[in-house]
Structures are given as C-alpha cells and as structure tokens.
Design brief:
The complex is a heterodimer of chains A (270) and B (404). By secondary structure, chain A is an alpha/beta fold. Chain A contains 12 helices and 9 strands. In chain A, α2 packs parallel to α4, α4 packs parallel to α6 and α11 packs antiparallel against α12. Chain B has 15 helices and 14 strands. In chain B, β1 and β2 form a beta hairpin. Classes of the chains: A alpha/beta (270), B alpha/beta (404).
C-alpha cells in the first residue's frame, strides 16, 4: 500500500516557507480525456490535487462547480474513470497529495470498503465528503482508517467551539476551513475574520488548516497564504475550463498559467 | 384534545433505527442545532401550542372532517372507506399544519425571512400564506418544470407576496429546488429560516414536521372511534417525502391497524419511470438524511416520474424507511393511470375533487377495500384538493379537444 503523503506535503511547504496550494477540478470535466490532461497540468503546479467526484445533486456547490458536475456526468463519467485519472496523476507525480472530494451518496452506494480499496490503490491520500459532518463520520471512519485514507473534515464560520473540538478529533490529514457561510465560488470572507477563526481552531488541533471557498485572485491567495497552511482554489480553476469550452489547447494553457500564478503567491514574505 | 407528548423519538442525533441523522454541510450543522433546540423549547411551552392550535382552529379550519364515503364504498363493494378531509384545510392541503408550526418557530427565533422549496406548489402556497400572515419576507424555490405544470399555484404564491425563484439545475423539479434552497440557506442562515416541506431532510426536520402533522392522525383516530365505534382496520396515505403519511400513521403506530404507504408508480414500477423510493429504491444519503432513495449503481440520483408533482421526488422520509424495515409499514403503489381513475371515481361518486397526490392513496385504498368485508373500515388521508391539478387532468382526458 502506498504511503499517505499529506503530512510530507505540509512539512515540505513549511520548510520552504510557503502555504500549500490545493487545486480543485471536477473529474471528467469537460470530458474524460480532456480532464486527464487538465489534471496532469494542474498537478505540475499544486501541492495537493483535489479531485471532485461528479454528483447529480451538488448541494454545497455554486453555479461554476455545479456546471462542471453536469458536464462530467453528461460526458459519461463513472467512478472507474475518476480512479483511472487518479492513477495517471499519481504515477506522474508521486510527491503530491491527492484528495477526493464529493458527496456521501457516491461512496455510500459503492460501499465504503469497495470505494476505499479502489481509491487507495489508485493513489488517493484523503477523502473529503461535504455532507458527512463529524457526528455522522462513524459511518466511514473505520474503513478509511483501515485503508490509510485521511478523512478530512470541514469547519465553517458557523462552527461553535464544541463543533471545532469534535471535528478536530475526527479529522486527519488537514482541516478544510470554509472562508464564508456560503457555497463554493462565492465571495471570500473577511481576511481578518478568517485569521481570527484559524487561531481559534489551532487551539484545538495541530493539524494543518487549509482555507477554501471564494479564493479567486492572486491578492486573496497571497493574503490567506500568509497565515494558513494551505489555500484551496476551486471555482477559479474550473472557470478556466468554462471560459475555454471547445478549445482544449487554450483550456490547458489558461489553467496552467493561472495555476502557476497561484503557486507563486503561496510564498510567505519574511 | 391533542396529545402533546412526543412519542417514537429518534435517538439524539435524529436517527430512526439506521435511518435519518444529520448529513449536512458543516455550515448548516449549527443552524440545524439551533432549530432543534428552539423546537424542543417551544414544544415544551404551553403558550406555543396555544397560539398554534388557535391558528389551526380559526385560521386553517381544523378539526377537518372524517367523511364516510358511502357511495364510493358501495361502488367498490368491500370495506367502508372513510376520508380524512385534509383537502378542506385553508390553502387546500395538509401542508399548512407544518408551515404554521415552523413559521411560529421562525418568529420565536427572531428570523424575519423564510425560504422554502416546493414541488406541486402546495407547500409553497402554504409557506407564502403564513409568511403573508406573519409579515415575513418569503422566497420560494421551484423547479422550472414544476412551474410550468403548476401555474395556478405559482400565481397564488405571487399574489401572496412571495418571490417564486425558478430552478433550472439538474432535472428542474423538486429535488433541485431543495438543492437550491439549501445553497441559499447556507449563505443566509443568520437571518433566514428554511421551512422544510416534508418529513425528510436533516434532523430535526423529520421529527418536527411529523409532530406538526400528528393532528391528522390524532383527530382521525378519535373521529373513527366516535363514528364507527372502533379503530380502522387499514390506514392508507400517499407518500412523496411522506409528511401526510407520517402525520396520519404516527398516532396509529401502536394500534392494531395495518398501515399502507402508497407511492407513485408513474408509468409502472417496472418501467423505470416512477417515484417509488421505498418499493424500488435502496438506502442512500440525500438532502441531509439517510433513507431510501432512487439512484444508479454509482449513487447518482435518478430523475423520477409521476403525474403528480408532489410525489415526484427520489427520496422519502427516514421514519417511514425505518417503519418499512421493521415490518410495521406496508408499501403499495399506484400508477398515473390508477390515480387518474381514482380522481374521477371520487369526483363522480362523492362530489369531492381530490389532489392527484391523494388520488394515489385513494386508488390503492379502493383496491384494498374491495378485498375486505363490508363491516371493515379503511381510512384514507385525502391530503389535498384537486383544483390545482385541473389543467393536468384536462390535458390527460383530452378535454381541450372536445367540441362543446
């Protein structure tokens, strides 16, 4: 079994005095073949690749990622394709972290053990299920542990201290802090508020904390990178697909360029 | 006259056996906990019930009658069919029992704005109605496809001052309206209350919506005893999400009464075009709870079909799933054609035009009654009236083509 690389990734970034760049794309968007090329391109620039599992009812996603899921499903995406993409990325980039993100019903229906075995074999390090909060995490926690898959929990501006404690207990790999009470792709929350929340969360956990939801500009990425362990960019990268539909070379170029800009903005000034 | 003790409690996390729970995004976990706390606090407060029951009586028009459908029973030629007339509630369906309760709760929590999803438009109308009365801002999320087939209810909501917001994502029906309402709620939970329309979704909605509807079963039980001198032999209700069904069944669970949930079989259970989550689905997680649902082998939620927009939903409430699993609940279904036939049968025999949703329950009840003795009693929840469906039925019966 391949070793879980998430801890190594954060350690490396810390040594290089920068935040980890976590880049998201929905698997099989806009189609299976193009998606593979896009993922490989994004993997060049990021520390952790977050791969979205397409779902028919993406309740926590804004219009950009909703549309990505719809395109992927319309292109005939299956979980076997998602795992195949993971495998290719893993072969090309043994050093990066790979995280699957999605909704509970997909792994639940596949069976958590079946899902975990396939994910681990393909090279996945962690799993983030939007609709499995700490209270319900027992449904998959044992199996994920057994397969050495980190179960990454989310925390939000609405999370109470009690909930932070609970999520910190369950979470592994890192904690994903949602910058705003909203859906993916909305406007980022106030930096000062995010910073305050991170200090609070750090009282409960030693895990790295990545901040996501709404980080779109270089400026935003830079300011979050100055105090967070990682910065998640999702809708902004998916938008590079949306705005270049039908033109694969332009799509790849645009994604690579925006990813490289974001990668540079992870560096902390000291 | 109502029993206000909460029976058949789920566990602390809102699980009914292996079903239910709170499978929600982290951002919603605390708002849901606040609703749960506010609900239990309100339920223990006599003044909450005083106001709620006063509104149910003087605004909604409860107690709703239990009507012995003698002519229909004679036609069927079996057991006596009794109709619990939820169609006579203000706004024309059972839905208002719940929206009154939740609007009172929203006001108690200091929320000035309410949002809701709607399929057939009945829950939307019931929400818009109480929002008008309580002077709250109201946004209703409704699939584009449902807006098309339920035009009268859309106009009703607008007249009541609600914003009806079309949802184009996915299949543009009820499930997508729920997705959109959840997305909006995530971003606005501080000042906005989400009036969930059925006994499904994350805890505490399945429990709370059930409690607000138990008036149905409690009244029907007492009325049946009074009119027939005994309890019904069978109680029947249609099931989409399941709020009218659990409202009728919950107070009858501990009696020796056969309980039958009737799902929408659409073009037939084997056609793949239906909404029968209990009969043909399997456990899964959607919209905040673990229950039966219709999905493919990789967990993608399937589009559903039913003649009635209110039953056109791929999931079902967790408590009904638990009752089925334990053997307490029997599952039946009615096709589009069955429902249309029952719709006409009741209209002609009794002068009551039922909602197409309720016509599903009625169709199964007539089939069940036909095999029973004349002394036996079948109780049916006539959950709504059919005015909203006249356009659909006119099309199906080819009324437009008839020359006057």
């Amino acid at each position: 079994m391949m070793k879980n690389s998430l801890a190594q990734v954060f350690k490396r970034c810390e040594q290089e005095n920068r935040a980890a760049l976590v880049g998201y794309l929905t698997a099989c968007d806009p189609d299976i073949e193009t998606s593979e090329a896009l993922m490989l391109a994004l993997a060049q620039e990021v520390d952790i690749l977050e791969i979205g599992m397409p779902f028919s009812d993406p309740m926590a996603d804004g219009p950009v990622i909703q549309a990505a899921s719809e395109r992927a499903l319309a292109a005939g995406s299956h979980m076997s394709d998602v795992f195949a993409i993971v495998r290719k990325v893993r072969l090309a980039h043994p050093e990066i972290g790979i995280v699957l993100m999605g909704y509970a019903n997909v792994p639940y229906t596949m069976g958590f053990a079946n899902f975990s075995e396939k994910a681990k074999n393909a090279g996945v390090d962690g799993v983030l299920l939007v609709d499995i909060p700490a209270e319900e995490s027992a449904i998959c926690a044992q199996v994920f542990k057994q397969y050495d898959l980190s179960q990454i929990m989310l925390l939000a501006p609405t999370s109470t201290q009690e909930r932070i404690r609970l999520a910190a207990e369950v979470s592994d790999g890192f904690i994903y802090y949602v910058s705003l009470a909203g859906i993916t792709g909305a406007e980022m929350g106030e930096v000062s508020h995010i910073k305050e929340r991170l200090s609070l969360i750090r009282q409960y956990t030693k895990l790295p904390i990545c901040v996501g939801f709404g980080v779109k500009t270089e400026q935003q990425a830079k300011s979050v990178a100055s105090f967070a362990d990682g910065v998640v960019i999702g809708s902004h990268f998916v938008s590079q697909i949306t705005s270049n539909i039908g033109d694969k070379p332009a799509m790849l170029a645009s994604l690579s360029e925006s990813a490289s800009v974001m990668s540079l903005s992870m560096a902390r000034d000291t | 006259m109502y029993d206000l003790t909460i029976k058949h409690m789920p566990d602390e996390g809102g699980h009914f056996g292996e079903f239910g729970g709170r499978f929600a995004a982290e951002t919603l976990m605390q708002p849901l906990k606040e609703i749960e706390d506010a609900f239990f606090e309100a339920w223990a407060d006599p003044s909450f019930h005083e106001e709620r029951l006063d509104l149910l009586k003087n605004y909604v028009g409860r107690i709703t009658p239990l009507y012995h459908a003698k002519h229909l029973s004679a036609e069927v030629g079996g057991a006596q069919i009794y109709l619990k007339r939820e169609d006579l509630n203000h706004t024309g369906a059972h839905k208002v029992n719940n929206t009154i309760g939740q609007a009172l709760l929203a006001r108690r929590m200091g929320k000035k704005k309410v949002i809701a999803e709607t399929g057939a438009g009945q829950h939307g109308v019931a929400t818009a109605t109480v929002a008008a009365m309580f002077n709250m801002t109201c946004d209703i999320y409704m699939g584009r496809e449902d807006i098309r087939r339920q035009a009268p209810n859309v106009f009703r909501m607008k007249l009541l001052g609600a914003n009806v917001i079309p949802v184009d994502s996915g299949t543009a029906t009820l499930k997508d309206a729920v997705n959109e309402a959840l997305r909006v709620w995530v971003a606005s939970c501080e000042d906005t209350y989400y009036i969930f329309g059925t006994a499904a979704g994350p805890h505490p909605f399945p429990l709370m919506v059930r409690q607000f509807h138990t008036v149905i079963g409690q009244e029907a039980r007492a009325q049946c005893l009074e009119q027939t001198g005994k309890l019904p032999d069978v109680a029947v209700a249609c099931v989409g999400g399941g709020s009218n069904a659990i409202g009728l069944f919950e107070p009858l669970q501990d009696d020796d009464i056969r309980l039958v949930a009737v799902e929408a079989a659409g073009h037939g259970l084997e056609s793949g075009e239906h909404a029968a989550a209990l009969a043909k689905g399997r456990p899964g997680i959607i919209h905040g709870s673990l229950s039966y649902l219709l999905d493919d082998e990789e967990g993608q939620i399937l589009g559903t079909h039913s003649i009635s927009a209110g039953l056109d939903y791929p999931g079902v409430g967790p408590e009904l799933a638990a009752m089925m699993k334990s053997g307490r609940l029997d599952i039946d279904s009615a096709t589009d054609a069955d429902a249309l036939q029952a719709f006409q049968a009741l209209t002609k025999a009794e002068g009551i035009i039922p909602a197409l949703e309720s016509s599903h329950g009625l169709a199964a009840a007539m089939r069940i009654a036909a095999k029973m003795d004349k002394e036996q009693v079948v109780l049916v929840n006539l959950s709504g009236r059919g005015d909203k469906d006249l356009g659909t039925v006119m099309d199906l019966l080819g009324f437009h083509d008839e020359k006057a």
